[in-house]
Amino acid sequence: MVESLSDVYNDLIMEHSMYSENKKDIAEADYSEMGHNPNCGDEIKLELKLNGNKIEDMGFTGHGCAISQASTSIMIDTIKGRTIEEAKEIISTFISMIKREITDEQELQKIEDAIAFKNISNMPARVKCALLAWHTMENILQKSEDGSEK
């Protein structure tokens, strides 16, 4: 039986929500930020370790629905090892995809497995779940640029 692309994406989301290797504390993290979705109670803490302007390591802890947990894990896989500028571009592309501002498959390739959330905009109640980690990461990157409190 041939799996459809949406089935592959669903499998990917379920795998990341249940068995994420990214669900961990980061020793000596440079930045730590809480993200909270008051609509459903999802809550994550993102931790980030930088090496210059490169994201050396990331992890998260917290609780929430399968969408928020998988989105956080996939985001970490997608931006870990990248520069801050590359991460910001990926985050911007992901958010634009969710808002249906970018639909070009070629442009969406840069977000790698995060494309699994492409159709989440069809479920408005789940959009905030998918975006929680991405907005939290935006806050961390803004603080790193501003030299703000870690």
UniProtKB/TrEMBL annotation:
Q: Which residues form the NIF system FeS cluster assembly NifU N-terminal domain?
A: 9-97
Q: Which GO terms describe its biological process?
A: iron-sulfur cluster assembly
InterPro entries, per this entry? Answer: NIF_FeS_clus_asmbl_NifU_N (IPR002871)
One Gene Ontology MF term: iron-sulfur cluster binding
Family annotation (SUPFAM superfamilies) = SufE/NifU
Record-linked PANTHER family: IRON-SULFUR CLUSTER ASSEMBLY ENZYME NIFU HOMOLOG
Q: List the protein's name.
A: Nitrogen fixation protein NifU
> Source species, please?
Anaerosporobacter mobilis DSM 15930
